[in-house]
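Letters spell out the chain; backbone shape is given numerically. Take this protein:
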Amino acid sequence: MSNTIQPSFGTQTCGAPAKARETKRTGAKPGSFLDLATQAGRGRTDTFTAGPGGITGVADAPAGLMMDSAVRSGGQVRTEGVEAAEAPSLETMLKAKYPNIHYHVFDAGSGYWRTRNDYPHYLLYQDGDKAKETLENWQPAGANPFYGSIDGRFIAPKEIRALGSVPPGSKAVVIHPKVQERMEQDPAYAQEIFARIDTWFAFDKARNEAIIPGSTWDMSQAVAIGEDGNICNACSSSGGGEITFSKSGSDDEESWWDLRMARHAEFMKLLVEKQIQRHIQASEAAASAAAKSQLASMLSGGRLQEIFGSEIAGVPTETVLAITQSRIWSGGAIF
């Protein structure tokens, strides 16, 4: 994940319906594909986008759909007369698959995650108490800063620009304290949460790659698990500072999806000039086909709904999955 869709904060890819062609100057509110599912920012060189991936790579098979035997048997292995082996923790399992993942424990259910352009998402990719305390206690000051393009010039608050310094392909998770406590007592629950996170990373990457080939090679992803064990927030970014969010069904401002569609028209020219020449190649078409094949496999059999639970960031899981199918196999929009 080294290179993001937008190194200069001046390019972003997305499909744009005629209805949403105008970018508001009133603090663009990133909603999410979770609105219509969540995120996947598309910065090609330095932007906040989601998921790990290579220019043509598709995520590894998620644990929930194809968990390796090591994890499947990772609970307590009991044999006659031998004390049970200690089950691996969620953090241990995640770091075994994603060595550089940033693991936090606090309540990350705040709606500011998906409604404020100045929320410090870049701190999710930093370790230490300072980053955690800042994120956990963050409150907005003033109006939501503008995020978008004016006369071909990309404008973003410093918090989004700071995402440009996040190493491509970074991963971060935030676990609610009550979930953390339960997992420490229940190894099977820890494996359930691991499968949910791992499957989300793979699903989010595959759907983005299927829509925009080559868009996930430098993608970074963050996901938050709420008190009920479900995904309460998620976002993804590319190396230059473009960000996409999950969106709760209760958010009543203009949807991130519409705003992103509107930005497509403005950013497409810059995108073509600075990025498209390098990425629209036959290899990307192959990557898209591979991603679609992976998604089709993931969506079949009802396993995703079982793994993700009843909702994702306040949106029914079945809605998220239906929108994914519609956007990818019905020639729908790009995010």
